[in-house]
TrEMBL record:
Taxonomic placement: Eukaryota, Fungi, Dikarya, Basidiomycota, Agaricomycotina
Entry-linked InterPro entries: 6-blade_b-propeller_TolB-like (IPR011042), WD40 (IPR011659)
The protein, known as: Peptidase YuxL
Amino acid sequence: MITPQDVASSDGITDLRLSRDGSRVVYTSGPLYKTGNNRTSALWLAETTIENSARKITTGDSHDYAPSFHPKASQIFFLSDRHEVGGAIQLYTLSFDATSFTEANRITHSRYPVLSYSISPDGNFVAFTLKSSSSEQNDKEPISVWRENLGFDALHFIDLRDSSKT
């Protein structure tokens, strides 16, 4: 018999992404429901032609999610609060040969959370949006909002060819 506790404590798979050549898949796995104060999830990587090849590449102690393959390099980009669990989400990278003990490379260093990102098709740039400080201030005002206020600061770019930034 399945209990409500079984459902609440079960893990789910989200954010499936195939590599450009289809040889690998990266995905997020974590509790379907938040346990404790902060959401947690881990990234997994598998070879699509090798059965049971899935391996955990992040610990799952923080909220690692939204993975994406770099189009030309053997890197995986993802969002995480790993620098401060429950803190501002930042953009990170890991190599394909990473294990859950490998330290991720932090790409962004903002006090505001990264909301979304996209890597250019040539792999030279990453674009991302940040939640703005003005939207945080507006969230504290006692007003009625009839539609979602996305509150983006601006579109930001990082040149991935500049090794001082990656």
